[in-house]
């Protein structure tokens, strides 16, 4: 399905002029970068991140092999993504606090819904949001997002602060990824035929953004649990 077909099928216009912020860059069928789409909400998003991470602190998780991840993470929503000695999974409880993850702020959910709809994915109701904080040098190696129970729902990924080099690969790890610069307020949406594409983030450059200092914040919205 082409981008135009997808939009037509969803009864949506996929016209860059329709985007709140700026232009849209199609990566491939089912995957698009909505430029500057979250710029207006960014201060409110950062304020909400502050609230969430006061209740569920950012932490560097370890992988099953014992490596400490360079990205600091937290979550909000009904389920939170975790990595530890037993592997990757979602859990309703934050192991650091022993409490449920904080509720998803409405400013998060409404932005995620709007971005998904703009990319042709109607009725996206995220139940999980992973918060990633990148300091200079932090990176996320090529991976697939496949711990969710619902692959019909897209991933909506919001970039805030210092720009990043996003790796966009194919359905096989061996495919050479392309590099796409993601700026403050850009939103990447991938789903449908691109839902399981490999992706990652190059080591963050030492840079400065007026709202985040030398940090990059990223929010990824997912449907982790199956709808009942
Ligand atoms: O930071 C990003 O832009 C990507 C994050 C990501 O892929 C993830 O959290 O699974
Ligand atoms: Mn990912």
Q: Can you characterise this structure?
A:
It is built from three helices and 13 strands; from the N terminus they run H-E-E-H-E-E-E-H-E-E-E-E-E-E-E-E. The protein is of the alpha+beta class. The chain has a single domain, classed as Jelly Rolls (Sandwich), CATH 2.60.120. The protein binds 2-oxoglutaric acid (AKG) and manganese (II) ion (MN). The site of manganese (II) ion (MN) has 3 residues, from loops.
CATH-level-2 architecture: Sandwich
Number of domains: 1
Strand order of the largest sheet: 1-2-11-8-13-6-3
Total number of β-strand segments?
13
| Strand residue percentage | 25-35%
Helix content: 10-25%
CATH topology category name: Jelly Rolls
The residue-averaged pLDDT reads: 92
The run of helices and strands is: HEEHEEEHEEEEEEEE
CATH top level label: Mainly Beta
Total number of helical segments? 3
Shape: globular
In the CATH hierarchy, what is the superfamily?
Alpha-ketoglutarate-dependent dioxygenase AlkB-like
Bound compounds, each kind once, are: 2-oxoglutaric acid, manganese (II) ion
Sheet of most strands: 7 strands, antiparallel
Radius of gyration: 16 Å
**Multimeric organization:** single chain
Low-confidence stretches: 1-20
Structure classification? alpha+beta
User: First CA to last CA: what distance?
Assistant: 29 Å
């Amino acid at each position: 399905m082409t981008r135009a077909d997808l939009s037509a099928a969803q009864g949506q216009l996929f016209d860059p002029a329709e985007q709140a912020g700026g232009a849209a860059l199609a990566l491939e069928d089912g995957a698009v970068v909505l430029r500057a789409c979250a710029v207006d909400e960014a201060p409110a998003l950062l304020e909400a991140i502050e609230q969430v991470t006061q209740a569920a602190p950012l932490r560097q998780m370890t992988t099953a092999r014992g490596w400490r991840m360079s990205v600091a993470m937290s979550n909000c929503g009904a389920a939170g993504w975790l990595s530890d000695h037993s592997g990757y999974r979602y859990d309703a409880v934050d192991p650091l606090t022993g409490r449920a993850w904080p509720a998803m702020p409405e400013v998060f959910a409404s932005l995620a819904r709007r971005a998904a709809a703009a990319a042709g994915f109607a009725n996206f109701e995220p139940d999980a949001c992973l918060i990633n904080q990148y300091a200079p040098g932090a990176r996320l190696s090529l991976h697939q997002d496949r711990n969710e129970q619902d692959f019909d729902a897209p991933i909506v990924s919001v970039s805030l602060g210092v720009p990043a080099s996003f790796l966009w690969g194919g359905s096989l790890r061996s495919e050479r990824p392309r590099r796409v610069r993601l700026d403050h307020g850009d939103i990447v949406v991938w789903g449908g035929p691109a839902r399981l594409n490999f992706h990652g983030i190059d080591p963050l450059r030492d840079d400065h953004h007026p709202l985040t200092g030398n940090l990059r914040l990223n929010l990824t919205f997912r449907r982790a649990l199956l709808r009942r």
